[in-house]
Structures are given as structure tokens and as C-alpha cells.
Design a protein that fits this description.
Blueprint (H helix, E strand, L loop, with lengths): L19 E2 L12 E5 L2 E5 L3 E4 L6 E3 L7 E2 L2 E2 L7 H7 E3 L4 H5 L1 E4 L2 E5 L1 E4 L2 E4 L1 E8 L2 E2 L1 E2 L4 E8 L7 E8 L34 E2 L2 E2 L5 E2 L7 E2 L2 E4 L2 E7 L4 E6 L7 E4 L31 E2 L4 E2 L4 E9 L8 E10 L2 E4 L14 E2 H11 L4 H4 L2 H11 L1 E9 L6 H4 L25 H7 L4 E11 L6
Parallel strand pairs: 1-8, 2-33, 26-27
Antiparallel strand pairs: 2-3, 4-13, 5-8, 6-7, 9-10, 10-33, 11-12, 13-14, 13-32, 15-32, 16-28, 16-33, 17-23, 17-32, 18-19, 20-21, 22-25, 23-24, 28-29, 29-30, 29-31
């Protein structure tokens, strides 16, 4: 996954995350059921729910209505420094449907891209699956299978309906950092392999020092700190292209970076692999596999199966392969085969595949430098939080997913073309108007023993 720094939150003024808890709006998590599966069958987890990421929530002074952060700026009287800010600012509950365009129905979650509301509009969102009212569900992926249904038919070039895992703390970091009173209930503790610096509170402190407004996004900026952690991208997709990608890190859990260690001068100078080892069928030479009317038809609902294979066939083994299958119209579809000269014709992510891909595409070998599949497997064994989001990309217009990227490279060079979208597509200023009605729906989440979550 490329930078998510441009995830656009509410377009009205009260946009920030915080650590204290406000009392103006009750936080009621929308229910979202899912299933745990074994060879004996699947059991519905009916009490599960989702919570909205803290970066989208309204934050104001405790006992009042003054914003702690407005547009791209912190209120210096409330937030003269990071530690004082968490004591002065309260994080409110969310009106999921009315303000953010987020709705659930049984085992189905729909995220709208643009949601008009009484304060203007909300653009994009990010949510987490909850185990209880105050803790995220933790998934241990080794020797397991994760399956879900998805509808990306309404996602054009430039949008991304993403489902992935991040190695976040189950409580959102509240035990490690007591200043964080909001915890997982209010969506705190986010991190990923891009070491994002737009996270406004990290490790119980405001990220206000050195904060600079984004040149493109009127409601975002970057501070001196970033939030790094292992990330397993199960699904990054629109109706044109898709990729699944492990991103290992040398650190365990959330690691707060600062300065150059956040990749400010060199994006590869962090504890994580920002590029990952991606399997994008189009980029790997099968240009007729995924898309509307193709073998995996994105005009219809798709079942996506991801298997985490270990060398011992047990949860204590070393991750050696990440397999992908699709099911549509009752038919199991094997993943596409690599069709690039010099690359073996495999259909899954293995160490050999990643070594060959990096060599042939002449990509940086940060994946190997950060431990490759073995390191990703250690994170998967410790446990990760399920994240679902819809977003547009102020940094690279999503061209790394669905177009030719980098745009300065020759499109005929192996690895450059990732989809059929034009290189001038995906600009947030365009898609937030032309695709305002877009949405993604995730449903029927199943997790368990390999071979038990799909038919």
C-alpha cells in the first residue's frame, strides 16, 4: 500500500482525534456479525461491531464546544504541547450513518465515499472490527484462512475500498499510555507500514509539534511523529484493479517514529517496508483477469479467499506462502498466473516470487530487508486488527494501484502498468465530485481453518 496520508476526513471544521472522552454524543457501535469456522462448521459472532477511527471524530475542549483543531491548524491555547492537548481535548461519539455514511445490516458493512451532512460533507472513512465495547478483535492469521464478500462495482479509477490488517494494540494503546482515555472504543491507536504522520494523537500525545498543513487536502496535515507497524493488505481494490500485499516491519506493534525515521527525506528510511510485495494480476501480466465482465467480474459481488500457509502446516510454523482464491456465481476461480518474462508462472506470494518480482521490476528490496514473509508471519502470529476503509489519494492519485506508475516511467517497462486507468485520473478534486455517490460493501466475513470458509 502506498501512503494513506491523504485519507480525507470531515470537510467541516471539527476534524481531529483525541484521547479524552466527550459527553455530547453517545458512542454506539454499529453491529457487524461475522463467523468463526472449523471443520465442524461456522459459528456466528453476533455481538461484534465496528468503531470509527479517531481521526474522523469531532474533538473539542472538555466541557465546551471549541475545536482543538480547525482546518489544518491546532488551537495553540488548548494544545500548546502534545501532553497538555490530551488533557484539554475530548473525543466525541459518532453519528455513523448521518455524518459519515457508514451503515451495517447483519453481516454487511457499507462505506459511502462522500456523505453530505448538516455541517457540509464527509469524505472517506476507516473503521475497525470490535471484540467488545472497548477492544478490537485480534486475528491470528497463521495456518488460517480469511474470507469475505465485497462489492466494488461503484468504485471507479482513483478510489480504494480496502480491507487489511494492522498490528495495533487491542485496547488502542490505553494500557500503555494512560493519557489515552478514549482507547479502542473511540478508534485510537492506528498505525500502518507507511508510518503515517497525519495521525493527530500517537502514544497518548498530540502530534502537534511541527504540524504542517497538507498542500492539497484542506483538512489534513503532518506532524513530526508517525505511527509505524506491520500491515497485511488483504484487499486494495476498485472496479479496475486489485492487489494483495504483505508489508513487514522490523518493529513489534506500534512504533512511533520522528523526523527522518518517518521517511521524511527517504520513504525507505523507516522500520517498515512501504512498498510491500504486491500481487496485482494486471501488473503481473494477466490483463483480462479482473475487471467488469472479466474472469473475476467486478460488476458483481465477489468472494475473496486468502490463505496463510506455514512450513509446518501449523499456527506455530513460519509463513511461507499467501494464497488467493476467488468465488463467484458458485464457481471457485484460481488466482491468475504470472505472465511476465523472467518471472516464474506462480499464482501466490512466496519468498521466491518476491525475490524475482523485485529483481525483474527493479524495485527496492525493502521487503527482504525488513524480514520478508517470515517477519510478516511473526506479526500475523502475534495478532492483528481488521481495518476497512474507503479513500482517495492526495499523494499519488491511486495510480500505483490502477494506472501506470511512476508516471515518468515507460509504460512498456515490466511492472509499470498496474491497470487501465489514465495517468491523469484519480485526482481527489475530480473524484470527490464525479464519484461522490461511490461506495464499497464488505459482507459475510469468515475466518478459520483452511478450507472451511468457502465452498
Amino acid at each position: 500500500m502506498f501512503p494513506k496520508l491523504a485519507l480525507t476526513a470531515l470537510s467541516f471544521l471539527a476534524i481531529v482525534s483525541a484521547q479524552q472522552v466527550g459527553t455530547n454524543t453517545a458512542e454506539n457501535h454499529p453491529k457487524l456479525s461475522w463467523q468463526k469456522c472449523t471443520k465442524s462448521g461456522c459459528v456466528t459472532q453476533g455481538n461484534a461491531a465496528i468503531t470509527l477511527d479517531a481521526n474522523w471524530r469531532w474533538v473539542h475542549n472538555i466541557g465546551g464546544y471549541n475545536n482543538c483543531y480547525t482546518g489544518q491548524s491546532w488551537d495553540k491555547s488548548l494544545c500548546p504541547d502534545g501532553k497538555t492537548c490530551v488533557n484539554n481535548c475530548a473525543l466525541e461519539g459518532a453519528d455513523y450513518a448521518g455524518t459519515y455514511g457508514i451503515s451495517t445490516n447483519g453481516n454487511s458493512l457499507t462505506l459511502k465515499f462522500v456523505q453530505p451532512n448538516s455541517n457540509g460533507k464527509n469524505v472517506g472513512s476507516r473503521v475497525y472490527l470490535m471484540n467488545s465495547d472497548s477492544k478490537y478483535e485480534i486475528f491470528k492469521l497463521l495456518n488460517q484462512e480469511f474470507t469475505f464478500d465485497v462489492d466494488v462495482s461503484q468504485l471507479p479509477c482513483g478510489l480504494n475500498g480496502a480491507l487489511y490488517f494492522s498490528e495495533m494494540d487491542a485496547d488502542g494503546g490505553s494500557a500503555k499510555f494512560p493519557a489515552n482515555k478514549a482507547g479502542a472504543k473511540y478508534g485510537t491507536g492506528y498505525c500502518d507500514s507507511q508510518c503515517p504522520r497525519d495521525i493527530k494523537f500517537i502514544n497518548g500525545e498530540a502530534n502537534s509539534v511541527g504540524w504542517t498543513g497538507s498542500s492539497g487536502d484542506p483538512n489534513s496535515g503532518k506532524g513530526n511523529y508517525g505511527a509505524c507497524c506491520n500491515e497485511m493488505d488483504i484487499w486494495e481494490a476498485n472496479s479496475v484493479s486489485t492487489a494483495y500485499t504483505p508489508h513487514p516491519c522490523s518493529a513489534t506493534g506500534l512504533s512511533r517514529c520522528t523526523g527522518a525515521a518517518c521517511g521524511t527525506n527517504d520513504r525507505y528510511a523507516t522500520v517498515c517496508d512501504p512498498d510491500g510485495c504486491d500481487f496485482n494480476s494486471y501488473r503481473l501480466g494477466d490483463t483480462n483477469f479482473y475487471g467488469k465482465g472479466m474472469k473475476v467480474d467486478t460488476s458483481k459481488k465477489i468472494t475473496v479467499v486468502t490463505q496463510f500457509i506455514t512450513n509446518t502446516g501449523t499456527a506455530s510454523g513460519t509463513l511461507t506462502e499467501i494464497r488467493r482464491l476467488y468465488v463467484q456465481n458458485g464457481v471457485t476461480i484460481q488466482n491468475s498466473k504470472v505472465n511476465i518474462p523472467g518471472l516464474a508462472a506462480g499464482d501466490s506470494i512466496t519468498g521466491a516470487f518476491c525475490d524475482s518480482q523485485k529483481s525483474v521490476f527493479k524495485d527496492k528490496t525493502q521487503f527482504q530487508a525488513k524480514g520478508g514473509l517470515a517477519a510478516m508471519g511473526k506479526s500475523a502470529g502475534r495478532g492483528m486488527v481488521l481495518v476497512m476503509s474507503i479513500w482517495d489519494d492526495y499523494d499519488a492519485n491511486m495510480l500505483w494501484l490502477d494506472s501506470s506508475y511512476p508516471t515518468t516511467a515507460n509504460p512498456s517497462t515490466p511492472g509499470v502498468k498496474r491497470g487501465t486507468c489514465a495517468t491523469n485520473s484519480g485526482k481527489p478534486s475530480d473524484v470527490e465530485n464525479s464519484a461522490a455517490g461511490a461506495s464499497v460493501t464488505f459482507s459475510n466475513i469468515r475466518f478459520g481453518d483452511i478450507g472451511t470458509t468457502y465452498k
